[in-house]
């Protein structure tokens, strides 16, 4: 039975279970979800306070508004049925997905986390994807790199600047914990360079597994081919076909996400791939989309029929309301069968124009697209709106080959130049560096690349394994200078203004072609952010198997000029105490 005929089997799109049972405290995907303002604290007619900032560099020297945005979250275990199938996971304030973080550009976030994960207890830590954390590298949320995990029963307050604007997400960085529910959207309001009328808000796209993350990690360790996801979600919803539930508790007709469109209006949608592995292809029946940003970087607008998003990536689009007031359409996101491992790739959500019956089932036809590669849109197409030119020569170039290989004890793992990563939760590298220790010859598994006082860093990444890798760098956006197969010939795409973002999709290799089948990506960034910055594949299962390095920038400044807040040492003392009297079952790389 096709997924559509399965959905159409329901007489109408009224959910058979309550929002509380399916998604807990989350309102995302319901018609009650709020439309977003153009900035916080003003009335809707006031316009953005940033509207005349059009010439300002969006990446450096963000404004400082002095406004603090406080959040208080509790992380605990619970059981929800987002797709009708009852799954016990780990949630923030009892919702799947987690709460939406909002701020204006230049505000300060202050987010207090209470770790109430019990039965069994487990550490946690939260990462704010895409934010630079300039001057606050210890707030980056990666255990073993920037902090000790937050121990069960302990609290931690993350304080950092909303230093870029646009759309992103946060997620736990403790093993693959986020894939069980510890994630949510980030919206930062800033200058608007492409006008729209209605901000629909976050549209989270993610694969979903009915098995707990720990089992998925267990099943993926030592294997190149990772477990298939069970479902695909738009804002945490897509009914599961309960005939496949294998006797587990499952309610049919759990409901799809619903969105309101207005005829004649321009709608902004903030697409976010918040998944574990699946590469998403997003379309809206009967509508064209205009891309205005990739990650936190605005681009010269271009039209697209399909948006490709690998894990960790975001694309902001504007969609014109070309439908009639009573029209309904399907919004769709498919996990690529060509690139990913999926048992049920199709996610659907319903779009209702202003006069449509919101229980009716859309009858619209899908937009066709090609699913024959795993790349992002061509680098030639994605030109940043604000020009930024890389230096003519990088200070330093590192070549990193990424392959799935046996380590010295015969276990197959992901290696970065022959070395797989494993974190030591008890010894965050940033805190060691702050104490003056920047060399770890006895810990090769920390994969530290110390770039000293280099001004810029170029990475040439290669891989011949037949799998794609969304490569993500913390603390920075990077330029994507080039990508392709074989050997890079030194050509840079649009050298005066290359593609610029924080996560880029690396194409899979083709081992049948030998050297010519090697996929490469060339990245470069200014090493202008003293700290220890993870650079890793964002596929949760590859990361668990060690596909990660730590980039250390300006160790002298980390040691001599940075005042680490006391809470960092306290968090380690709490963690040491916890891990001293409990067995911490670090099944994977730890991140
Ligand atoms: C925008 O321009 C007005 C008038 O020139 C000025 O008063 C205001 O401070 C500016 N706002 C920002 C955020 O620059
Ligand atoms: C912590 O989580 C448990 C369930 O895991 C819940 O019963 C308890 O109320 C939570 N504690 C607090 C303080 O909310
Ligand atoms: C090889 O990998 C396995 C699985 O990650 C790990 O348990 C083992 O310690 C590794 N061996 C070495 C020598 O690092
Ligand atoms: C990795 O190991 C292979 C085979 O053992 C060797 O040929 C290659 O030079 C090594 N690469 C690096 C970067 O050390
Ligand atoms: C630096 O830290 C590592 C990891 O704890 C340790 O093995 C090494 O001995 C330390 N180096 C110095 C000089 O203290
Ligand atoms: Cu990968």
Biggest sheet features: 6 strands, mixed
Q: How many β strands by DSSP?
A: 30
Helix content, binned percent? under 10%
Cα Rg: 23 Å
Which hetero ligands occur in this complex? 2-acetamido-2-deoxy-beta-D-glucopyranose, copper (II) ion
Count every helix, treating DSSP H or I runs of 4 or more residues as helices: 7
CATH superfamily of the domain at 396-562, by name, is Cupredoxins -  blue copper proteins
**End-to-end distance:** 38 Å
Corresponding CATH architecture of the domain at 396-562: Sandwich
With strands numbered from the N-terminus, the spatial order across the biggest sheet is: 10-9-12-17-14-15
Strand composition percent? 25-35%
Keywords: Copper, Metal-binding, Oxidoreductase, Signal
Biased composition (Low complexity): 46-55
Domain Plastocyanin-like: 83-190, 202-347, 427-556
Family: Belongs to the multicopper oxidase family.
């Amino acid at each position: 039975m096709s997924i559509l005929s399965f959905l159409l089997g329901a007489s109408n799109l009224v959910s058979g279970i309550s929002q509380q049972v399916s998604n807990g405290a989350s309102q995302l995907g319901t018609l009650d979800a709020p439309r977003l303002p153009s900035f916080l604290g003003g009335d809707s007619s006031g316009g953005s306070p940033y509207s005349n900032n059009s010439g300002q560099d969006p990446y450096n020297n963000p404004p400082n508004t002095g406004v603090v945005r406080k959040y208080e979250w509790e992380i605990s275990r619970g059981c929800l049925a987002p797709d009708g199938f009852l799954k016990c996971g780990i949630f923030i304030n009892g919702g799947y997905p987690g709460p939406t973080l909002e701020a204006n550009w230049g505000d300060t976030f202050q987010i207090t986390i209470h770790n109430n994960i019990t039965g069994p207890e487990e550490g946690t830590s939260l990462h704010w994807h895409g934010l630079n954390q300039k001057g606050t590298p210890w707030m980056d949320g990666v255990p073993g790199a920037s902090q000790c995990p937050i121990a069960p029963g302990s609290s931690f307050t993350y304080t950092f600047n909303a230093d870029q604007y646009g759309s992103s997400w946060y997620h736990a960085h403790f093993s693959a914990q986020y894939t069980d529910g510890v994630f949510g959207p980030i919206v930062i309001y800033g200058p608007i360079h492409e006008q729209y009328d209605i901000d629909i808000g976050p549209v989270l796209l993610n694969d979903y597994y009915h098995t707990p993350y720990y089992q998925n990690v267990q099943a993926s360790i030592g294997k190149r081919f990772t477990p298939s996801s069970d479902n695909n979600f738009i804002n945490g919803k897509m009914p599961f076909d309960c005939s496949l539930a294998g006797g587990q508790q499952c309610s049919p007709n759990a409901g799809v996400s619903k969105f309101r469109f207005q005829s004649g209006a321009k709608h902004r949608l903030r697409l976010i791939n918040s998944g574990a592995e699946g590469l998403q292809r997003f379309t809206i029946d009967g509508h064209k989309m205009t891309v205005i940003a990739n990650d936190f970087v605005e681009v010269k607008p271009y039209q697209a029929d399909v948006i490709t998003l690998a894990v960790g990536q975001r694309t902001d689009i504007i969609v014109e309301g070309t439908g009639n007031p009573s029209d309904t359409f399907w919004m769709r996101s498919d996990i690529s069968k060509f690139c990913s491992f999926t048992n049920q790739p199709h996610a659907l959500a319903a779009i209702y124009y202003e006069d449509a019956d919101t229980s009716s089932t859309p009858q619209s036809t899908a937009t066709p697209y090609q699913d024959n590669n795993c790349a992002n849109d061509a680098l030639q197409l994605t030109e940043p709106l604000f020009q930024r030119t890389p230096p003519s020569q990088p200070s330093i170039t590192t070549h990193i080959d990424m392959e799935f290989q046996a380590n010295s004890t015969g276990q197959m793992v992901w290696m970065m130049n022959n070395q797989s990563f494993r974190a030591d939760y008890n010894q965050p590298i940033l805190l060691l560096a702050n104490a003056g220790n920047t060399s770890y010859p006895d810990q090769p598994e920390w994969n530290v690349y110390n770039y000293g006082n280099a001004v810029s860093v170029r990475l040439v990444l290669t891989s011949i394994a037949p799998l794609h890798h969304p490569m993500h760098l913390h603390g920075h956006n990077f330029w994507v200078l080039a990508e392709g197969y074989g050997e890079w010939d030194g050509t840079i795409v649009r050298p005066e203004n290359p593609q610029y973002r924080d996560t880029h999709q690396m194409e899979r290799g083709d081992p049948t072609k030998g050297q010519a089948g090697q996929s490469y990506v060339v990245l470069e960034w200014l090493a202008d952010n003293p700290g220890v910055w993870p650079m890793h594949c964002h596929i949760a299962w590859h990361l668990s198997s060690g596909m990660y390095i730590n980039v250390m920038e300006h160790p002298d400044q980390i040691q001599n000029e940075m005042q680490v807040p006391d809470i960092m040492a306290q968090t380690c003392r709490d963690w040491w105490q916890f891990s001293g009297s409990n067995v911490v079952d670090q099944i994977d790389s730890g991140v």
